[in-house]
Amino acid sequence: MNRRQYLTRAGVGVGTVPLLASSSGATGYITVDIIEANTPLAGGDLLEMTAELENSASTDERVELSLVVGEDPEVVGKRTVPVNAGETRTVEYLQFRTYPVRTDDTFPVQVATEVDIAETMVTVTGIDSFDAQYAYPNREQDLTVQPGTTVLFEIDSEMLDQQGTTHWYVDGEYVTTPAGPWPATYFSEVGRELFTHTFDATGTHLVDTAVTAADGNAGSRWEVTVADNGLEPPTVDATRPSSRELAADKPTTLELDVSSTATELDRVVWWMTQSDVILDVSDISGTSDTASLQIDGGCHTCQIEAWVIDEKNAFTAVNPWVFEGFDEAGNDTGEGEVPVTILDTNSPVTGGEVLEVTAAIENTGTAEVTRDVDLVVGDDPELVDSRTVTVPAGGTKRFELLFETYPVAQDDSFPVRVETGDSTDQRTVLAYGTGT
User: Helix or strand or coil: residue 179?
Assistant: First the structure.
């Protein structure tokens, strides 16, 4: 059975199952056992396991531990764990997020070292689809789009109680749980959870969501076909005022002429960037229309971003205007929004190892920008790394920041932040204790 039918990884590192090999030296004295697993669990839930490593040798060891899933074994997580001579080490937080299957499924999960394997069977129970009236776009209609089209998927707030959390998957792989100011603002103002995905490869793709809640999980599935003759996203044909620059302290009427060649238009969502607010949602209809918005000004260097959405939830995002981007001499500074985003970390790490944080800065302006970037860690913030990053106009620059973690005795989770002065992104990371 294909792992993608029922699993999706939540750890780091993907590869093939390790081969058992004969061992010389102390490593051969390491045994592994699975002592706890929260099975059975519902589709979309996080499988959490605890293992135990016993070192009967006379020397301390560092053991490479792999989490392996499926009848066609695949490594979904790796970790290096120190185990002192003559001691037993408990290893927690072995986990991955399951797929929102519709029928019950049982499959093997292994915790493996180079010389030993412990295996248990895990059962994931199927979940029901929630009512189609709460899912957008209509999952029962044909959804065929051209390559490069972005589709907005939504779940009505009536489907989500206070305990509900959404998890999104594309083609069987876990993608995200929506987080950040824009999804939160959209949910508050529009009353829907959102997830966007751009479809580039031709063929048929599946988008799934799992709503995990205390009283039971539910899901929704969309089938999206990507073809050269598919639906084109809506277009913006004209903007008024035509000048990109807006006065931050004066009222202005904004207008967008929009059109669609394949389906009816639906709405325009007006955002003000940096302040992360929705100014309005304008209804539009037909295959061509004009959306307008009256504003009283805005924050300096903030942009107006408009999402033009059609009835099948294909959408186009444009940034036609920015507030006061001129310097005192009247020259266009070309400044746009310059957000920083944490893309990935190598968490979890063992205390004493180097934490690697991969981040990116996006420059939406028309001029090159330079930012000083800091990596700050801990609940009592400590600056641990910094660098200067230059990003060309309209470009994105990736970079890494490093932090040598402390050799803590017990597992420890803590926040890490990447800051540029005008933008910040944060994640929580985990350092495993050394047991000493």
Answer: coil
Domains in the chain: boundaries:
3-125, 128-226, 235-323, 340-432
Query: What does the alpha-carbon distance between residue 375 and residue 383 come to, in Å, rounded to a whole number?
Result: 6
pLDDT digits (tens, 9 = 90+) for 11-20: 333 333 333 3
User: For tokens 């396991």, what's the residue?
Assistant: 49
The DSSP symbol for 110 reads E
Judged against a pLDDT cut of 90, whether residue 176 lies above it is answered with no
Distance CA 47, CA 33 (A): 17
Q: DSSP secondary-structure letter at 17?
A: P
**Phi, psi angles (nearest 5°) of residue 395:** -110, 175
Model confidence pLDDT, tens digit, residues 243-257: 888 988 889 999 999
Distance CA(50)–CA(29), nearest Å, equals 20
Q: Which helix (H) or strand (E) holds 186?
A: helix 181-190
- Among all chains, which residue has been given the structure tokens 């981040």? 359
C-beta neighbour count of 386 within 10 angstroms: 12
- Joined together, the tokens standing for residue 222 give 């969309």
Q: Is the pLDDT of residue 259 over 50?
A: yes
| pLDDT tens digits, one per residue of 110-152 | 999 988 999 999 999 999 999 999 999 999 999 999 999 999 9
Fold agreement between 3-125 and 235-323: yes
Give residue-wise pLDDT tens across range 278-302. Answer: 999 999 999 999 999 999 988 877 8
Considering the four listed CATH numbers 3.40.50.11540, 2.60.40.10, 1.10.10.10, 3.40.50.720, the one that applies to the domain covering 3-125 is 2.60.40.10
What is the DSSP secondary-structure string of 398-436?
EEEEEEE----SS-EEEEEEEE-SS-EEEEEEEEE----
**Separation CA 264–CA 182 (nearest Å):** 26
Please tell me which residue, 228 or 422, carries the higher pLDDT value. Answer: 228
CATH superfamily, domain at 128-226? Immunoglobulins (2.60.40.10)
Three-state SS at 234: coil
Preceding amide of 241 cis, omega within 30: yes
Task: Evaluate the CA torsion angle 320, 326, 330, 333 in order and state its sign.
Answer: negative
C-beta of residue 133 within 8 angstroms of C-beta of residue 113: no
The CATH topology of domain 340-432 is Immunoglobulin-like (2.60.40)
CA distances from residue 431 to 95, 178, 353, 401, 419 in whole angstroms, order as listed? 15, 25, 9, 16, 22
For the stretch 261-279, pLDDT in tens is: 889 999 999 999 878 899 9
Tokens representing 371 are 């930012």
